[in-house]
Amino acid sequence: MDFPNDVRYTSEHEWARLEGDLVTVGITSYATDQLGDVVFVELPEVGRKLEAAKPFGVVEAVKTVSDLFTPVAGEVVEVNRALADDPGRVNQSPFGDGWMIRIRPTSADDLERLMSREDYAKLVEEQHA
Amino acid sequence: MSYVGRTREEERRMLAAIGVGSFEDLVTAVPASVRLDRPLEVPGPLSEIEVRRRFGKWAAQDDADRAISFLGGGVYDHYIPAAVQTIASRSEFATAYTPYQAEVAQGTLTVIYEFQSMICELTGMAVANASLYDGATAVVEAALLARHQTRRARVVVAGALHPNYLAVLRTYLGGDVAVTADRGGQCAPEDLKGALGPDVACVVYQHPNFFGLLESPHALNVLAHEAGALAVACCDPLGLALLEPPGRDAVEAGAAGTRSGADVVVGEGQCLGNPPSFGGPLLGFFACSSSLIRRMPGRIAAQTVDREGRRGFVLTLQTREQHIRREKATSNICTNQGLMALRATVYLGLLGKAGLAEVAELCVQNTHYAATLAEKLSGYRRAHGGTFFREFVLECPVEAAVVERFGRDRGVLPGVDLGRFRPEWRRWLLVAATEQRDRSEIERWAEVLKAAGGLS
């Protein structure tokens, strides 16, 4: 499985991408593969303060449901409203149009604590084996 | 598995198989002080004839069938058409629960779907679930939904909610439940205003309330919404046949676009084709706006098509539920009151919109006739001045318990003694006259009250 290099990863299969001073968050292609067709994404309201590693929302597939975990602490500044009508974007483009929230991070350095592409690929390989 | 008792020989073989000398050896771990050192005193076996005779005698002591009932307070003595029993007894429906392999039981799912549709129509809400245990737990589930949705803790009860419902609410939420001041039996919007704050998840009110009085749903809903809380209405389904459903938005009443419809409408559905039988089993219903559907508790039946395009029914949105969501499920309810919901569905289907409204009108007329007669009796007066629907509180010249006993001995159950809920209500009798009561029965009731009023 191929993962992009411009994002950092969590062990819970979220990704985080630094864009200017904001961090965009979504779930990885491995996560969408495991979930199957996503039918609903519950996202936080704009302005909510999030703590790292705590749930910020829920992703629901046909037969299962999973919490979404915050990669870096901060405040929600934008949520992907398009997912309300078209949750399938998460499957079609997990690292692009399927993004979920944008956070103004408390500290951009927190991103450094997340996993690199290589570490994440290794984790997936282990979980898959 | 058979429930036939074991023989001494079987007992000996079982003990031998596990290497224990006697049954006593098995229970040595239980301290002697808590063990019964003599045989259990149960009467000996009875023949079928004796059992019938004994149970028949007990059944004859139950006067609910013979007495003229004016009982209410959530459980009512309505007429149940014979067809309800006949249809509900059919083997196709013979389950009290949502079946485990739900989609195999298309008949059951069809009934649940019809039940949900009827509840939506009655409450004016977009979605309803397959039913809950009773009105009390439905109120609790609504409060839990509001707490999850708003991520706030406190629940404000506006006005007279059934004391049993309030008790169940407190069992779940403890100190997070506040009750507004009671003035004249109804909730004054200004009293609710004072009780609201940024930590309030929802406002819960009963309409008509426990005392039978109408509340002002739209005013209460607007106040709840202005405070960022949800509005939860607990309604009598018979009341919904005549009253404006609190779930429906009224002409814009609030500040700049504040919704005036309730977010959740719940209630007790016993009055729809289910007998009062010792106070249960009951039937909770739960309806809400579509934006809350993913937080709704319980099961939801939905319509779909099979691969050949034929109409079929399924259980849907199950990711909310325990078997998938585990400890994060919206509720621990994982079944429904299948049999009671079935009876309610058949009842509503038989009566139709006009029939249900007619039953409600008859209840209103009978109850108002009873109130008129009672107010002419010396020492009796209505405890509250507000508009009442199908029951009212009568203040008695003596303790209501005295009136209740006096009536019962004379074949009339004159109402619910509210003293059993609160000592300061001990002279209050809650009276409901359903469509089953005729003029002569209501007059007989008034005579009983008159005679009881002279007692001290």
Write a short abstract of this structure:
The complex is a heterodimer of chains A (129) and B (456). Helix content of chain A is 21%, strand content 34%. Chain A is α+β, with helices and mostly antiparallel strands and 129 residues long.
Average pLDDT figure of chain A: 94
Alpha plus pi helix count of chain B: 14
Amino- and carboxy-terminal Cα gap of chain B:
59 Å
Question: Can you give the helix content of chain A as a percent range?
Answer: 10-25%
Proportion of strand residues of chain B: 5-15%
**Low-confidence sequence ranges of chain A:** none
Distance between the termini of chain A: 13 Å
Verbal overview:
By secondary structure, chain A is of the alpha+beta class. Helices cover 21% and strands 34% of the residues of chain A. Chain A is built from four helices and nine strands, in the order βββαβββββααβα. Chain B is of the alpha/beta class. Chain B is 37% helix and 14% strand. Chain B contains 14 helices and 15 strands. In chain B, the strands form four sheets. A seven-stranded mixed sheet of chain B has the order 2-8-7-6-5-3-4, sandwiched between helices. Chain B has a four-stranded antiparallel sheet with strand order 11-12-15-14, with helices on one face. In chain B, strands 1-13 form a two-stranded parallel sheet. In chain B, strand 6, helix 10 and strand 7 form a beta-alpha-beta unit. The relative contact order of chain B is 0.14. Chain A binds chain B through residues 40, 42, 60-61, 63-65, 67, and chain B through 294, 319, 324-325, 328.
